[in-house]
Amino acid sequence: MSPTIGLPPPDPEICLVTSRVSRFKGGTLIDEDVCDLDTHVRRVADPDRYRPGRCPRCGHHVLHVHSYPERRPRGEPGMPPALLLVQFRCAAPGCGATWRILPKFLARQLWRAWPTVERVVKPDGLAPVPRDTPPVPARTRRRWWSRIAAAARVLVVLLAASGGQALEPIAARVGLDATRAELIAAHAELAGVAPGARLAAVAALTHRLERGIRLM
């Protein structure tokens, strides 16, 4: 019998549960409406469609395009070698916070697209992997599996405290001893999220509730 049976899941790495709201002047915002590459490319070509309505730091309503940083997502068929993002800068005197806008399908800090990660940690129900898909290194797969099996306590508390009628039942269903995989499954069932988009949905929701808290 495994010595872990009946025990709570292991604690997640500290980098997954560290808030960045008060530590940095700006940061990353995830646009939850951008779920595919074509939509992202159109918005980069017309930055007004990515421009935040206000600065999350000071509330100022004018943000200017600051730069176009690159992301180089690996291992996802159909994804270009380099992908432009849009970064805005708050125009308020004394603020100047910069905000990088990330489409929902890109995983923050993993340098991958979420479908790539989901195929590794949650393959059930997904389409077969195309033959030309680059393999994910074994060490990376082990790290992802470890993270998805870690405790979801911080994420569950965020959902429970959100005040959202659609989110609180998810927290109540899984409880404080759930793993991140169990939380993802419960969210997918209750929110009707299709395979391939399940990790992206929880990651974006988590980041919206507490910027910097990571799913993976």
Architecture overview:
The protein has one domain (14-127, 135-209). The protein starts with 26 loop residues before the first strand and ends in a 7-residue tail after the last helix. The chain contains seven helices and eight strands, in the order E-H-E-E-E-E-E-E-E-H-H-H-H-H-H. The strands form three sheets. The protein has a four-stranded mixed beta sheet. A two-stranded antiparallel sheet has the order 3-4. A two-stranded antiparallel ribbon has the order 7-8. The protein is of the alpha+beta class and 216 residues long. The protein is globular. 31% of the residues lie in helices and 13% in strands. The model has no long low-confidence stretch (mean pLDDT 89).
Concise description?
With 216 residues, the chain is α+β, with helices and mostly antiparallel strands. It has helices spanning 37-45, 114-121, 138-148, 153-160, 168-174, 180-191, 198-209; strands at 27-31, 63-67, 70-71, 83-84, 86-90, 98-103, 106-107, 112-113. Helices cover 31% and strands 13% of the residues.
Query: Average pLDDT, to the nearest integer?
Result: 89
Biggest sheet record = 4 strands, mixed
- The tally of beta strands, per DSSP, is 8
Helical content class: 25-40%
Count up the domains. 1
Tally of alpha and pi helices: 7
Beta strand %: 5-15%
Provide the structure class. Answer: alpha+beta
Unreliable runs, pLDDT <50, ≥5 residues?
Answer: none
Described by the principal axes of the CA atoms, the overall outline is globular
The end-to-end span amounts to 29 Å
